[in-house]
Each structure stands twice: as structure tokens, then as C-alpha cells.
Amino acid sequence: MSDTDLGLLAETIKAISEGVTDAVANLANFSAVLFDALDRVNWAGFYRLLPDGALLLGPFQGKPACIRLEAGRGVCGAAVTRGETVVVDNVHAFPGHIACDSASRSEIVIPLRRGGQLWGVLDIDSPVEARFGDAERTALEAAAREIEAALERCE
Ligand code: SME
After folding, report:
1. pTM above threshold 0.90
2. Which of 21, 73, 76, 99 fits a 20 to 30 Å CA distance from 55?
3. Is residue 66 part of a domain?
4. Domain count for the chain
5. Ligand 1 mean position to 19 CA, how many Å?
6. Whose CA is nearest to atom 1 of ligand 1?
């Protein structure tokens, strides 16, 4: 995907969710938009934060994934604990990485907030090492802000 196209991600997320107030419908479409728009990506989707701190699988595209990630575990848990984006260039070098798809080599996880509280994460995996550089991080964080805006509009 070119940087020009990356710039369209947030706009697409905003456009496709206009007037949609169901969270599952929105998240299903967002995972499809991200999976379709980004090349060299083998998984794109959401995990929702539970009251006990674990993460529960949400809408996604890619191979079937781990349903429950225990609190603080894996790259997703690290993003929740730190409250910030985590980019892993080589998942094999990340202690505690949870391999849902053995093809995954690099990963980006962006925390999502709703009503000022941590709501869950956007998780994207690639079969290519160091797939997510500065341009991808910037574009995906902008897309994440639009995802948060859409969640605010949901019932
Ligand atoms: N690799 C993640 C688990 C989720 S899957 O990638 C879909 C992690 O380490 O948290």
C-alpha cells in the first residue's frame, strides 16, 4: 500500500460508519477495510477489554484467533498496560507474544478508548518482518481515532 493510500484509511473508516450506530456492524466493516486496504497483512481485528482485564476477541479478518487473552499477556496486553501503541518488528523477539497465526512476523496494536475509558485494542499482524513503520503507525493511529469516534456514536 502506498503512503497516498494510507492517507485514505481514516477517511474511509469515517465514511463507512456514517449513520451506523451498531458497534459490531461497524467493527466488522472496519476490520474488512483494514484487511482489504493493507497488503502483506494476515490478520486485522479487535479485542474488547473485559472487567477482569482480559481481552475478548471481537470482529476480525484472517485466520481464527485466540478468543481470550489474559490480562497483561502478549503484545495486546502490553498495549493495554502501557496505554499506548506497541509496534513489534519481530514477534519472535517479543517475550510473551501470543501466536494465533504462526505466519505472523510483525504486529501493531493500538489501544482504543470509549467515553474516556480504555475499551479494547485494534490489532494488525503481518507475515513480513518490520511491516509497520512510521507512516503505517501514523495512518493507523489516525484510523484508530476515527474508530473511537464511531464507537462514541454507537448505542
Ligand atoms: N499476537 C497477539 C495475539 C492476538 S493475535 O495476533 C490475533 C498478542 O501477542 O497479543
Report:
1. yes
2. 21
3. yes
4. 1
5. 31
6. 98
Distance between Cα 6 and ligand 1 center (Å): 23
Confirm whether 2 is domain-assigned. Answer: no
Structural domain span for residue 87: 8-153
Per-residue pLDDT tens over the stretch 114-139: 999 999 999 999 999 999 999 999 99
The ligand 1 site (C-beta within 6 Å) comprises 43, 65-66, 69, 74-76, 97-98, 100, 104, 107, 123, 125
pLDDT in tens, 41-64: 999 999 999 999 999 999 999 999
The answer to whether 35 and 101 are in contact (CB under 8 A) is: no
C-alpha of residue 139 to centroid of ligand 1, in Å:
20
